[in-house]
Design brief:
The protein is an alpha/beta fold and 305 residues long. Helix content is 35%, strand content 28%. The chain folds into two domains: 3-216, P-loop containing nucleotide triphosphate hydrolases (Rossmann fold, 3-Layer(aba) Sandwich); 224-301, Alpha-Beta Plaits (2-Layer Sandwich), CATH 3.30.70. The two termini are 34 Å apart.
Length: 305
Amino acid sequence: MSYAIETIGLSKSYGRVRAVDGVDLHVAGGEIYGLLGLNGAGKTTMIRALLGMIRPSAGSVSVLGQPVGPNGRGPWRHVGHLVERPAAYPELTVRENLEIARRLQGIPDRGATSRVIERLGLVADADRRAGMLSTGNLQRLALARTLLHEPELLILDEPANGLDPAGVVEVRELLASLARDKGVTVFMSSHILTEVDRLATRIGIIHHGRLIEELDARRLEDTRAERLAVMARNLDGAKTALTQAGFAVDVNPGEGTIFLSEARAIEAPDEVAAILVNAGTPPIRLAIEQEDLEAHFLRLTGESP
């Protein structure tokens, strides 16, 4: 089978630090693959290796069936990429920046510039100098440049960086439509778990340079553990009562919720309720729910994203 992206035993070291460690990756055409990890987990190093920007210490990389390396020309006319901070000529307008990119890429269709301006919601800023753009609109400009040549594969490092909530939704819908309607393969890294959860058809979790789990979206639903969510007006009192009763307590102060993952709590929520009532801090909500991707990530890595 030919993959859009394939790595075999991919490793990259910087001195004694192993940034990427023996990663075997297979991304099929038309997939939206989300590479998820903490800052420093190896996401950007992985993407730079996929794009031939750095030479692996060991292993191999192929993109669209072609080897990536110093002796290979690579399939870059069919690949769009966004890595690290977006760059633009600050004294030129959005339209002028894209026109330069179009000509440098040898794209004969002059309408390509106007199409990506509209697609990325940059019409109102088309004649504004890039140096005057917000961080979010600079990111939009970088994404527009990535899409100019209508690539069949997108490799994107943190594509939602700097975008406001509306922009995040627009980019999510754009990438989903490209995969759904045009068969574009999307490989994206992110530390924003909710976006990966909503967009990706397959998810890989990288931790300390190692790919520790891969799941397709459907299997992820089956893999997520159940937990008992408890809300109480006196959260500290509820936490103390449950801890004294022998429960392992996970508290989310922002949501005002305590989570219990033990089978004892899930199988007998009435026992939990009784403990809280007897402690003088009755629950205002008690529900069994599936953990979200953040909780799944935390359970796997032991760290918070």
